Amino acid sequence: MKIVIVGGVAAGMSCAARARRLDASAEIVVLERGEHVSFAGCGLPYHVGGEIGSSEQLLVQTPTSLRAALNLDVRTGHDVVGMDPQARTVRVRTAGGEETVGYDALVLAPGARAVRPPLPGIDSPRVRTLRTVADAVALRGRVDDGARRAVVLGAGFIGLEAAEQLAQARLEVTVVELSPHVLPPLEPELAAVAAAELERIGVALHNGTAATAVEPGTGEDVVVLGDGTRLPADLVVLSVGARPDTAIFEAAGLECERGAIRVDEHGRTNLPDVWAAGDAVVSTDAVTGVRRPVPLAGAANRAGRQVADAILRHDTARPIPTSLGTAIVRVGALATAMTGANRAALAHAGIAHHTLHLHASQHAGWYPGASPVHLVVHFGLDGCLLGAQAVGADGVDKRIDVLATAIRGGLTVDDLIDLDLAYAPPFGAAKDPVNLAGMAGANVLDGTLRVWHAADLDDVVASALVVDVRSRAEFASGHVPGALNIPHTELRERLGEVRDAAAGRAVRVLCGSGVRSHIAHRVLTQAGFDSASLSGGMLTLRATL
Ligand code: FAD
């Protein structure tokens, strides 16, 4: 059996390594266009900023180490430029000319290429993408040569990692993002927390606008934005997305969907004995069913491994699961993470759901160093978890990973209450934020808690009495116009005031984070009021405005 793999990084190399472990005698050839295989693509931004000092640290394996450890035939500088599915061959261009390589099984793991929008001046040498080790080394070289001002185009994961690192290297950094907020898949109220952190570390933001041109200059280029802003830069990082690198395979008859390879649940394509995995492949979203490529390293590694199983253990191979898109990014002192669907995706898919905001501490509030995990959780009307996002200085990864596991396992908010999570004061809380999300969710489902959302503020102010149950000092620091301030500890004695002020209208309660307003909501409901508590309180409201 001769297995030929195109692309020697996450999906391709995972497939090759697994194939070798399953079959000692197979001939396994990896064809990689670039200079390196098995490099740490996810580490590239950290070399730009100097956190990873040497680019050698990004080279996890080499063709020589892979030959020694796994007897793999890894050929760098081998660009696959064509395929003939009938003859079962690929055409390869190398420095020495072209050659044809035959296969019994072909695995396509070509990943994606950075998008280069056709803007005037985009080919200036000061404009760089960040996808390869050479890109990272070139950007690092610019920093070492004394670059002072950087513009990062695109505020997705890679753009923000680059921006953070360039700021850390003491460059003046501006990020430009077409969407209204940074990290477009993040809920706006959480993106606002990440944006504030970026500004704290000195990164300027231009949201809701795009670059229209780069004007090359002698000392610096100028990035021109759609809103007329002109940003001088001696370094421009282009991180506006990536496109599956599939054109040559599509031309040979491979079925693609908007450029990404269609595969079945085992990674099999429409062509005989041709499999595919990684960034170049269409995934199905586990929650919404939407089909799109999901460019994440974990998924690519796992899918590559499973394709090897499909080729060599076809009777027992497990299907490649649908995608949750679980992802995390560090922004300054904060981590920002997400799993499953966000509000926009749920709305687009027409999935009825509830949303809750929590700001619980990552560990017991009374233990030194407590800090909030700003958490948004979406769940269906049946209680099934659909998505979660979090931002915070500590403990974000734990909560999102637990919630990702819960979504994968089909758990409900009730199940979250029962999760037996590790606790001692430095690590968590006796009621972990995930348990609390379950409790609040269960309360919503059985009617114990009714919430209103910051997005409904205008309607609420127009039609209901807003009761702010924070302390007088908190109220004085800023409040919703027309709100009645009754600290929650006084509410039971002052229900008459609420009745008079409401004058038959509904009552909408709020506090700092949603905890005290929940207590107040219970008091009001049991006293006969039409009441609801603001999800996430003023913390969420302020981030939404
Ligand atoms: P790639 O890793 O892109 O590998 C494809 C390889 O195929 C490339 O080396 C390419 O040269 C080669 N190739 C393509 N076409 C041909 C051809 N015709 N002939 C020969 N060779 C070919 N994901 C995360 O989950 N977490 C992160 O923190 C994270 N950070 C990232 C940071 C950066 C800067 C980048 C660029 C990506 C990051 N990712 C991260 C995404 C992650 O790296 C990718 O999802 C993953 O590498 C995809 O693996 P892949 O094997 O499908 O493709």
From TrEMBL:
<dbReference type="InterPro" id="IPR001763">
    <property type="entry name" value="Rhodanese-like_dom"/>
</dbReference>
<dbReference type="InterPro" id="IPR004099">
    <property type="entry name" value="Pyr_nucl-diS_OxRdtase_dimer"/>
</dbReference>
<keyword id="KW-0285">Flavoprotein</keyword>
<dbReference type="Pfam" id="PF02852">
    <property type="entry name" value="Pyr_redox_dim"/>
</dbReference>
<dbReference type="GO" id="GO:0004792">
    <property type="term" value="F:thiosulfate-cyanide sulfurtransferase activity"/>
</dbReference>
<keyword id="KW-0560">Oxidoreductase</keyword>
<feature type="domain" description="Rhodanese">
    <location>
        <begin position="460"/>
        <end position="545"/>
    </location>
</feature>
<keyword id="KW-0676">Redox-active center</keyword>
<dbReference type="InterPro" id="IPR036873">
    <property type="entry name" value="Rhodanese-like_dom_sf"/>
</dbReference>
<dbReference type="Pfam" id="PF00581">
    <property type="entry name" value="Rhodanese"/>
</dbReference>
<keyword id="KW-0274">FAD</keyword>
<dbReference type="Pfam" id="PF07992">
    <property type="entry name" value="Pyr_redox_2"/>
</dbReference>
<comment type="similarity">
    <text>Belongs to the class-III pyridine nucleotide-disulfide oxidoreductase family.</text>
</comment>
<protein>
    <submittedName>
        <fullName>Pyridine nucleotide-disulfide oxidoreductase</fullName>
    </submittedName>
</protein>
<dbReference type="InterPro" id="IPR050260">
    <property type="entry name" value="FAD-bd_OxRdtase"/>
</dbReference>
<dbReference type="GO" id="GO:0016491">
    <property type="term" value="F:oxidoreductase activity"/>
</dbReference>
<dbReference type="InterPro" id="IPR016156">
    <property type="entry name" value="FAD/NAD-linked_Rdtase_dimer_sf"/>
</dbReference>
<dbReference type="InterPro" id="IPR001307">
    <property type="entry name" value="Thiosulphate_STrfase_CS"/>
</dbReference>
<dbReference type="InterPro" id="IPR023753">
    <property type="entry name" value="FAD/NAD-binding_dom"/>
</dbReference>
<dbReference type="InterPro" id="IPR036188">
    <property type="entry name" value="FAD/NAD-bd_sf"/>
</dbReference>
